Amino acid sequence: MTTALRKICGSNGTICLECTPEGRVGRSLYGRIGMTRNRKKVVAIGKNYEAHAREMGALHAPKEPVLFLKPTASYVGEGGSILLPPGIGSVHHEVELGIVIGKTGYDIEESKWRDHVAGYVLAIDMTARELQATAKKGGLPWTRGKCYDTFLPISDVIPSSKVPDPQNLNIWLKVDGVERQRCNTSEMVHKIPFLISHISRIMTLEEGDVIITGTPEGVGPVEPGNVVTAGIDGLVEMKFPVAARVYGKL
């Protein structure tokens, strides 16, 4: 299994991959708009915590994972800002544990999931809630509600060697110092081994891909001028200011 570390380089928010000799070195995978070429897909999971499913109006979390994709343009590293486009209604924070794929695979057996994981990230799936709700009512994809630039703030990568049990992590999010979300990843409905196996039977998971595993209850709106802080206890903490987006400027 490739052991991988990533760091955010400079002030441009680029996240680079640093591997042992088993892997490739220095390949830039993610970053803000126009900063990198080799960005990979984000597979997101909806309603993977019972309490969040209920706060979104469902009776229970779905029996099969709800999958959607976020574009690489959504990535923003610490040092950047969450930019809110005008005229899209309220934008909510959704803090999530992310899995970084370190080895390409398809039809992955649940028992082999660790062989394909390089590490973990903390991510915030920013969501234009009214746009998402309108799409749901019309039976349409959630693209407009999920895919704006900077709608995936993301942490440095935590090597898998530092996370012996990713299903026992405390994740949290605060807005202006007030805690809004906190949970333990043991509360996930669909666990990490199953998610990796399930997704890999639909699409090939490639080195550098990220799976964000769903958010707990407590989602809520942010506004320009807010500061969003999120963390995994004992492992990582990140901070992002929220600003209004001016079209023509990123």
From TrEMBL:
GO terms for cellular component: mitochondrion. Residues 41-242 form the Fumarylacetoacetase-like C-terminal domain. InterPro entries: Fumarylacetoacetase-like_C, Fumarylacetoacetase_C_sf. It comes from the Eukaryota. The keyword Ribosomal protein does not apply. One of its GO terms (biological process) is carboxylic acid metabolic process. Keywords: Metal-binding. Coiled coil: none annotated. Pfam families: FAA_hydrolase (PF01557). One of its GO terms (molecular function) is metal ion binding. Belongs to the FAH family. This is Aste57867_13183 protein. The gene is Aste57867_13183.
